[in-house]
Design brief:
about 290 residues, mainly beta, SH3 type barrels, endopeptidase fold (from Nostoc punctiforme), 5-stranded antiparallel sheet, 5 helices
């Protein structure tokens, strides 16, 4: 057993408690027992991940429909999990999980898209899914000239709103981020229904086939490479970091970000953003090229 220094482990990315820990940490941390966890899948449009099994605690992040994870513990309606997509650890309601995971075939391409009880846009929607959600398509149907993807459970979505998982991802993360303009800002949000600054960066990169950590401090520490604007210049797609904040550059003078100032995804002149944010949090802490 290793002599653990649990303070050195990021609890966001490592599943450990005094009573229970991920078996992969057996030589790193002390716990009463270790488990491998069991595979599960998100079965609700969104599953909010909390640092504690308490609905009143903050939202750390969100898991999307069809995403996979590992469950280490379940107790009183809460599951302690680790997301497969980015390794984030936390608690979510057990009701958000499927007891029988499906094999997903497609991903939602639009920030938001409705799921209908059948292939007809006149039907009242069952719910809506965010960009990045994963579904299983079993066939296709045409109604009045509109093509629908029929899902495995018989519901349907607009076919053009979906992309096969094996297809080439989208090309430009800034183009993806711009699709979220005017989306409400939501602390911990990671979807087309509400998103925060680092969630926007992570989503935009994921849709172009690139993995990114979830939080802005993690992104600032190792996403892409650090650049010096005075030496390397600035260009579209570069990331600007502040303490607790991040945004994309649309061009060398324009910032695109999920802003707590406007409470939306917005664009503004970089110089104006630097001046505004400096009054509260200081100047940019770094620039990176992902």
């Amino acid at each position: 057993m290793g002599g653990p220094d649990t303070k050195a482990l990021d609890r966001r990315l490592h599943a450990f408690r005094p009573d229970l820990a991920d078996v992969r940490l057996e030589t790193v941390v002390s716990a009463e027992r270790y488990v491998e966890g069991t595979a599960a899948q998100v079965a609700t449009p969104l599953a909010k991940l909390h640092p504690q099994p308490d609905p009143g605690s903050s939202i750390d992040t969100e898991a999307l429909f069809g995403e996979t994870l590992r469950v280490f513990d379940s107790h009183e309606g809460w599951a302690w999990v680790q997301l497969d997509a980015d390794g984030y650890v936390g608690y979510l309601p057990e009701r958000c999980l499927s007891g029988s995971p499906i094999t997903t075939t497609h991903m939602v391409l639009k920030p938001r898209s409705f799921v209908y009880p059948g292939p007809d846009l006149r039907f009242p929607p069952v719910h809506a899914l965010s960009m990045g959600s994963r579904v299983e398509v079993s066939g296709y149907s045409d109604t009045r000239g509109t093509e629908y993807a029929v899902l495995a459970d018989g519901t349907a979505m607009i076919a053009s709103h979906l992309m096969r998982l094996e297809n080439t991802p989208l090309a430009d993360p800034v183009d993806v981020a711009s699709m979220f303009l005017e989306t409400p800002y939501l602390w911990g949000g990671r979807s087309g229904f509400g998103i925060d600054c680092s969630g926007l960066v992570q989503m935009a990169l994921a849709m172009t086939g690139r993995k990114a950590p979830r939080d802005s401090d993690q992104q600032a520490a190792g996403l892409g490479e650090a650049i010096d604007p005075a030496v390397d210049g600035l260009r579209r797609g570069d990331l600007v970091f502040w303490k607790g904040h991040v945004g994309f550059l649309e061009d060398e003078q324009t910032l695109l970000h999920a802003s707590g100032g406007t409470m939306t995804v917005t664009r503004e002149p970089l110089a104006a953003a630097i001046d505004r944010i400096a009054r509260l949090y200081g100047p940019p802490t770094g620039y990176r090229r992902p």
